[in-house]
Amino acid sequence: MNVKEQIENLRSQVKYHNEKYYDLDQQEITDYEYDQLSNELKKLEAQYPEINSSDSPTKKVGGAVKRELRKVRHDVPVISLQDAFTKDEIYAFVEKVKSQIPNPKFVVELKIDGLSVLIRYREGKLVEGITRGNGEEGESVYENLLEIKSIPETIPTALPYVEVRGEVYMSNEAFEKIMQNQQEIGGKTYKTARNLAAGSLRQLDPYIVRERNLDIFVFNLEISEGREFASHAESFEWLNSLGFPVVPDYEICSNADEVWESISAIGEKRWKLPFGIDGAVVKVDNLDDRRVLGSTSKVPRWAIAFKYPPEQKETVVEDIKVQVGRTGRLAPLAILTPVKLAGTTVSKASLHNQDYIDAKDIRIGDTVVIQKAGDIIPEVIRSVPEKRPTNAIKYMIPDTCPICNSPTVRDDNGADTRCGGNECLAQLIRGITYFASKVAMDIEGFGPSSVDSLMSEGYIKNIADIYHLKEYRDVLIEKGIVGREKSVDNLLNAIDKSKENDLDQLITGFGIKNVGKQTARALTSNFADIDEINNATYDQLIMLPDFGETVANSVLNFFSLNSTGALIDKLKKAGVNTKSKVSDKSKDDRFTGKTFVITGTLPNLKRDEAARLIQMHGGKVSGSVSKKTSFVLAGEEAGSKLTKAEDLGVKIIDEEEFNKMVQ
User: Fold this and answer.
1) Lower Cβ count inside 10 Å, N or C end of the chain?
2) For residue 9, what is the enclosing H or E element?
3) Strand order of the sheet with strand 651-653?
4) pLDDT of residue 382
5) Residue 15 belongs to a domain with what CATH number?
6) Max mean pLDDT range (214-218, 320-324, 479-483)
7) Closest CA to 165 of 82, 294, 79, 231
8) Are 577 and 583 in contact (CB under 8 A)?
């Protein structure tokens, strides 16, 4: 991979994780891992300025703004902090400040892991609350902030205008209670308390905020018209006197040694805190000194955030077991001596496949080093051979399935081992769960526990049986298999609603090996219905976008099975849609060789609908604007992509013009 490709790959990854974190509240990796990606991108962009781009995520703060909530401009731009990962970087920061400021003081405080908000007061009354958004503009969450008990609605001050900045968070205890309840009812689960707190605060229903017991720590006084302060610590004392919960246990330090000692102390206690943190913040205390130091366009020169590396601990592999996935894949799982890691007790960790076990030489009885990938998922980093007992046992994935005793088969040119049986219960349960998941048919409330219960009771044996559950409504309510009357009716309504889904969701739900959502869309953009897909030839499939030999053969093999034909017949009889809503038999491939970028909110078409129309007519859809872009299809709030298109001279079209091109 050359440097340009490496930079583009990093930009793509950073943009993806920005959207997950800021816009969707679905953080997938740790801040530490994200910062490693971002810093690598910054270094490469600095080394190769000729590859720089105004559209790079390093040129922006935060994420895009959701359109469902009212937008509000910030009085003061909300910029990020410079990150540090080593002791040397902290010492360098302190020394740089000391070279410009005589005898500076520093405040070291916890970096709360939540959603940043700006809260405005006029004449002592709470009048507005805004999320960080993109740094220039955020979303109004005023009504939701009123439901957070620790935020005062009035403050004892006659100042005309006060603005404070804080971090809305959820305590570990509240998070665990909600997750336990969500699992019991088969509802949506979140990976972290931060994700749930952010998702809750941005709901349109304030009742959800009240129900989920969100809290806040204020960490900065942004504006105080009519009153000035000499230091950050002094402003903290004033905010505390007004009734604001300020960040606890902050310390004032005079030199680099004291700063590092404070950072280290926070690191030692971070997993014992009743709430999550994602680092420590070092700030120059004197506010006049801050003005002297100033800021760059992206970060203040008077503050830095230290990010802790993932916590690692040793434990013992007591046993290795295998689980069978929806595609029949046998996934080895290490059973560990329970150990407290990153705030929770860990007793299991995935070992992925036989190659992974062999490469790390992991044996039953071994002492191993573990950490949480993304501070979430436990993983084994390495074994410790010098602590290996004499009776340690090498592990091999079994040659028969532990569920149905069918022979197992190693993938051709792959690392995975799979069950060769067609009636394996474990595969069926996970296959039906995937079919109902959001990525496929999106049947709300039909989670793993409901699928397991209904299969165990014999009400469903395959995905077609889902659409006959309404025949057992009264029995299901009586037995309470998936909950009480309301839960049963909600599930049955969600199942009925899913019948109208587009064909690509059904194809995705089948769980065909090597066929995901994009591949399913390619199929349904080029074939009118499931029968045409069923009758497609290799030559037809291999010509589709992103189709290779492996994918084409996977589709052919799936539709050649007698069981697939029987399943499709049952789904048709149940009223499930099997026709493509975007396929056009009269298409003329007029967009062949053309690349589109879709940006903003279109008046009528959804983005994925527009993308399907483009792909159906032979065109490609890209996520970023470049000189190779043929058209930018722009709607309202188009943003930076529209600006870049104008700079590059790329033709910009609206939905009306696009429809004319299609028609």
Assistant:
1) C
2) helix 3-18
3) 620-622, 595-599, 631-634, 651-653
4) 92
5) 1.10.287.610
6) 214-218
7) 79
8) no
Give the residue from 246, 21, 27 showing the smallest Cα distance to 133: 21
Identity of the highest mean pLDDT range in 65-74, 102-111, 521-530: 102-111
CB contact at 8 A, 579 and 528 = yes
- Smallest CA-to-CA distance from 233 within 222, 243, 219 is with 219
What count of other Cβ atoms lies within 10 Å of the Cβ of residue 649? 8
Distance CA 645, CA 37 (A): 27
Task: For 405-427, write each residue's pLDDT tens digit.
Answer: 888 888 766 678 888 776 677 77
169, 177, 182 from 200: Cα distances, Å: 10, 15, 14
Indicate whether 246 belongs to any domain. yes
Q: Is 569 annotated as a binding residue?
A: no
Do 92 and 157 sit in the same domain of this protein?
yes
Query: Do 214 and 317 belong together in one domain?
Result: no
Name the strand (E) or helix (H) holding 107.
strand 106-112
Give the C-alpha separation, 533 to 541, whole Å: 9
Q: Which residues contact 340 (CB under 8 A, 6 or more apart)?
A: 271, 313, 346
**Enclosing domain of residue 641:** 595-662
Instruction: Tell me the three-class secondary structure of 568-598, residue by residue.
Output: HHHHHHCCCCCECCCCCCCCCCCCCCCEEEE
Q: Is 269 helix (H, G, I), strand (E, B) or coil?
A: helix
Q: Which residue has 């010492």 as its token pair?
A: 91
Highest mean pLDDT among 104-113, 551-560, 621-630: 104-113
Residue 450: HSE in the Cβ half-sphere, 13 Å Cα cutoff:
27
Whether residues 154 and 285 share a domain: the answer is yes
Do 477 and 447 share a structural domain? Answer: yes
149 secondary structure, DSSP code: T
Active-site entry in 20, 66, 98, 111:
111
Percentage, residues of the chain above pLDDT 90 = 38
pLDDT of residue 262: 97
Confirm or deny that 22 is annotated as ligand binding: no
292 and 369 share one domain: no
Looking at the structure, do residues 225 and 334 belong to the same domain, yes or no?
A: no
Q: Is 167 annotated as a binding residue?
A: yes
CA distances to 546, 618, 663 from 588, rounded to whole Å, are 19, 8, 11
Cβ 597 vs Cβ 641: under 8 Å:
yes
Does 81 belong to an annotated binding site?
yes
Does a structural domain hold residue 579?
A: no
What pLDDT, on the 0 to 100 scale, is given for residue 63?
Answer: 47
- pTM for the structure as a whole: 0.54
Q: Which CATH number do you get for residue 515?
A: 1.10.150.20
Distance in Å from the first CA to the final CA of the chain? 41
Which residue, 604, 658, 663, 656, is CA-closest to 631?
658
- Asked whether residue 290 falls in the same domain as residue 338, the answer is no
The helix/strand/coil state of 52 is: coil
Number of domains in the chain: 6
Q: Give the CA distances from residue 545 to residues 137, 439, 549, in Å, rounded to whole numbers and listed in that order.
A: 38, 20, 12
Q: Is residue 79 part of a domain?
A: yes
Residue 95 phi/psi, 5° resolution? -65, -35
Q: Helix, strand or coil for residue 208?
A: helix
Q: How many CB atoms lie under 10 A from the CB of residue 205?
A: 12
Whether 111 sits among the annotated catalytic residues: the reply is yes
Dump pLDDT digits (tens) for 357-403: 999 999 999 999 998 865 567 889 999 999 999 999 999 999 888 87
Beta bridge partners of 418: 329, 409
The answer to whether 262 is a known ligand-binding residue is: no
Shared domain for 491 and 514, answered yes or no, is no
